[in-house]
Amino acid sequence: MQVGRLFEIIYLLLERGHSTAAELAEHFECSQRTIYRDIDLLSGAGIPVYASRGKGGGIHLIEGYVLNRSLLTGQQQDEILFALQSLQATHAVQDDELLSQLRGLFCRAQEDWIEVDFSPWGNLEGEREKFNLLKTGILNRRPVSFLYHSGMGETGERQVEPAKLCYKSGGWYLQGFCRTRQAARTFKICRMEQVRLLEGSFEKRAMPPIEPAGTPTGGALFQAELHFEGSAAFRVCDEFDPRSVRQEADGFRVTAWFPEDAWTLNYLLSFGEQVRVLAPQGLLEALRKKAERIAHYYE
After folding, report:
1. What is d(CA 131, CA 128) in angstroms, rounded to the nearest whole number?
2. Coil/strand/helix, residue 147
3. How far, in Å, CA of 93 to CA of 283, rounded?
4. Residue pLDDT, tens place only, 110-144
5. pTM of the full predicted structure?
6. Which of 87, 172, 217, 227 is the most exposed place for a label (fewest CB within 10 A)?
7. What distance in Å separates the CA atoms of residue 98 and residue 104, rounded to the nearest whole number?
8. Comparing C-alpha atoms, which of 179, 188, 279, 274 is closest to residue 226?
9. Are 210 and 186 in contact (CB under 8 A)?
10. Strand order in the sheet with 58-61
11. Residue 51: which of 82, 27, 24, 74 has the closest Cα?
């Protein structure tokens, strides 16, 4: 236990810059005397750690101290390299030299185990550029603007303070503060066009939990019971909570909540003949009337 605590003390000091004996004692659930003994052991082992008194005092490492690679196990070294390679695969890190230097420091061979491509099939460079612009906006706190096609059928320009990218339910989303709507919003990235960085910067804001874009929230909901053909299995698995799905001999029965607006009708129509409304009756009638109006276009 003591060796593990000694290593963790070093990591905490590297991360925080300094700490007090009381804070470390609380973290490790031990006495301050034990912490001071650990500091003496680290100092005797050649780790440049020291304690100072007075305002701003505490326990410190000498500025610029770097851990020797031998303090990391082979598995920990691999985990660092794999994590960095994952970021590089998502284009969050584009410094090949950094990854190469760490491999040399750790004496680890290259393992190409992951590849991430944000773009649709066809490898469109425009999609890659879109992600690069959004990443730059988030990291440098630069506002962005783009033309957005909402799930309610509206199209318009948005100006947004980007906060984070999120991958959810098979799609990429941008969360940020929408200056156009003066509220936190989540945008589906594939619905963005003409993304560009704006001048200026912004202060980071607290963001609420990610909500799916395109699905209206905050309004009245109703519960519907649906039957899906077996050929719709891939979408049922992608888009519904498994707890709401029951497999049957001829397909799937799904019980789920939907908003009381036009989005629900358009969403269900996207399944074509693969879905049948079982309840409520009002939804069935509304869907039938909308389908009849669509059919009228082709008479």
Report:
1. 5
2. strand
3. 48
4. 665 555 555 555 546 677 788 889 988 998 999 99
5. 0.48
6. 217
7. 10
8. 279
9. yes
10. 18-19, 58-61, 49-52
11. 24
Report how far residue 177's alpha carbon sits from residue 159's, in angstroms, rounded to the nearest whole number: 9
Secondary structure of residue 196 in the 3-state scheme: strand
Q: 98 with 92: CB under 8 angstroms? A: no
Structure tokens at 6: 């000694």
Contact 175, 184 (CB under 8 A): yes
Helices then strands, each counted (H, E), the chain: 9, 12
Nearest CA to 186 out of 211, 203, 209, 205 is that of 211
Helices (H), the chain: 2-16, 21-28, 32-44, 74-89, 96-106, 125-140, 233-239, 262-269, 281-296
The answer to whether 163 and 205 are in contact (CB under 8 A) is yes
Distances in Å between the alpha carbon of 60 and those of 8, 38, 46, 49, 152? 14, 13, 14, 6, 56
The confidence band for 61, taking pLDDT boundaries of 50, 70 and 90, is confident
Burial zone of 189 (CB within 10 Å; 0-12 exposed, 13-18 middle, 19+ buried)? buried
Residue 170 near residue 232, CB atoms below 8 Å: no
User: What percent of the chain is predicted at pLDDT more than 70?
Assistant: 74
